[in-house]
Amino acid sequence: MKQLMKLSVNGESYELAVEPQATLLEVLRKVLGLMGTKEACGTGECGSCTVLMEGRPVLSCLTLVLDCADQEIVTIEGLAEGDRMSPVQQAFQDTGAIQCGFCTPGMVLSATALLEENLRPTEAEIRKALEGHLCRCTGYNKIIEAVNKAAGQMAT
Ligand code: FES
Ligand code: FES
């Protein structure tokens, strides 16, 4: 039987009736139409479905939406301000860290969470923050470069 809940996503509050076993990923994509959060493995292996919950990266494919009540969720759609991309989004674009783009929303959100905590991360810290994210296209070096570039811009 469906249960009523309130869900806050990108600053908007929603009242929803959800199945108890519904994942956050299913609700974001199929109910709210926020398709920027990607679904790939569906089993916690790839990081494509990462969103921020109270500022921390979580795998939305493994998170029950009922566990998100009263938590602030941020998806990739919530990062830009109007037409202006966030510094991390801009750095990914500028450095060529995006190829097919499937891993990009999750990578950008985890990098954003890292830089909220630490504006001068070492390469090891960046790699650690992104270790749950698989990218089949870029070889990762451009992604590390993008996070470093964003950190430099945000620190000034
Ligand atoms: S779709 Fe969630 S970790 Fe792969
Ligand atoms: S850019 Fe294609 S999976 Fe990362």
Structure commentary:
- With 156 residues, this protein is of the alpha+beta class.
- It has 2 domains: 76 residues, Beta-grasp domain (Ubiquitin-like (UB roll)), CATH 3.10.20.30; 69 residues, DNA polymerase, domain 1, CATH 1.10.150.
- 34% of the residues lie in helices and 16% in strands.
- It has 5 helices and 5 strands, in the order ββαβββαααα.
- It has a 5-stranded mixed sheet with strand order 2-1-5-3-4, covered by helices on one side.
- α2 crosses α5 and α3 runs parallel beside α5.
- The structure holds FE2/S2 (inorganic) cluster (FES) (2 copies).
Tag the structure with descriptive keywords.
single chain; Ubiquitin-like (UB roll); binds FE2/S2 (inorganic) cluster; 16% strand; 156 residues
Spell out the blueprint of helices and strands.
Layout lengths: L2 E7 L2 E7 L5 H8 L18 E4 L2 E4 L12 E3 L12 H9 L8 H14 L5 H7 L11 H15 L1
Parallel strand pairs: 1-5
Antiparallel strand pairs: 1-2, 3-4, 3-5
Number of strands: 5
Fraction of helical residues: 25-40%
CATH topology of the largest domain: Ubiquitin-like (UB roll)
Strand percentage lies at 15-25%
Gross morphology: globular
- Overall average pLDDT: 97
Question: Which CATH first-tier class of the largest domain would you pick?
Answer: Alpha Beta
Unreliable residue runs: none
Q: Span from first to last CA?
A: 52 Å
Order of adjacent strands in the largest pleated sheet: 2-1-5-3-4
The gyration radius over C-alpha positions equals 15 Å
N-to-C SSE string, H for helix and E for strand: EEHEEEHHHH
